[in-house]
Amino acid sequence: MPKRLLLGIIVVLLITNVATLLFWNKQQGKIILNNENTEVDVKEPVATIDGETISYDSWMSTLRETHGKEQLKRMIDTKIVKQLAAEHEIEVSEKVIKRELALLTGMQGPMTPKEVKQKEKEWREDIIYRYQLGALLTMDTTISEEEMKSYYDNYKNQYDFSASMKVSHIIVKNTKTAEKVKKELDNGASFSLLAKEYSIDEDTKKDGGYLGYFQTNSQFLPMGYFETAKEMDAGTYSEPFKSNTGVAIIYLHRLLPDINFTYKEIKPYLKRELALDQLDQSLTTEPLWNKLDIKWVYEESKK
């Protein structure tokens, strides 16, 4: 697999955003803490330990001192890449974004629809940022057509995504028990809790029946699972059916389709990968800071 094909997920801390919200809501004495819209009264302690309190101002001061510069730099980096990418008309194809989202989804455990929506929003922003940054860093690097075509011929399968499914299951010994479980599901019971109670699969019952992600042609996928799942909608459970391990009921978290690229489609991104390797260049905005007039509270970088 190409070295730079391995993906890392950037953890985005929202400390600077919190500080901004504090400024906006100071007169009301309230801030919004997180995506759940939790309100915090800035006049009240944010924590109490056996009667000893930590004030909101003390908390914010510590956050600014320990993370303020780092978070502000990340925000500036994002603005730099957006502005320069727009200037040079650098875009990322939706097909490439979907492929990256599929790969990242496969690394996660079970998620609620709300969690999926939030995660994919964060991932999408990061994917676009990384690809645009890579393109900006390698704009002036030349890679021959022959080298790109040879690399594609050797590694083209690594750029494709094979259809995959994320499933949980409940395995029981007989149809009678399976029908009982199905009835409880129909009455609104939790699939995860029922798996812990009824499933005879000791490897997955403690995790609520979660099996994980499988390519749809995987030899490790139990008999009948893909045939059943392909007729289901995400977020639904199946009727009981016989499998090679017992009577199964599966829950389909996600079913992700094949994503395949032609040489023409992947060529711009393949060029970026080869150019970064040739330059031995990491994905950093440092070479781009002198291309814009940047002023910030920690130091200044002028064009």
Automatic annotation (TrEMBL):
User: What enzyme category does the UniProt record give?
Assistant: isomerase
- Ranges where the PpiC domain occurs: 162-254
Entry protein name: peptidylprolyl isomerase
Pfam entry (one): Rotamase_2
Q: Which SUPFAM superfamilies match?
A: FKBP-like, Triger factor/SurA peptide-binding domain-like
Keyword Signal included in the entry's annotation:
yes
What Enzyme Commission number(s) appear in the record?
5.2.1.8
GO MF annotation, one? peptidyl-prolyl cis-trans isomerase activity
Database matches in InterPro entries: PPIase_dom_sf, PPIase_PpiC, PPIase_PpiC_CS, PrsA_foldase, Trigger_fact/SurA_dom_sf
Under PROSITE patterns, the record lists: PPIC_PPIASE_1, PPIC_PPIASE_2
Q: Output the superkingdom of the source species.
A: Bacteria
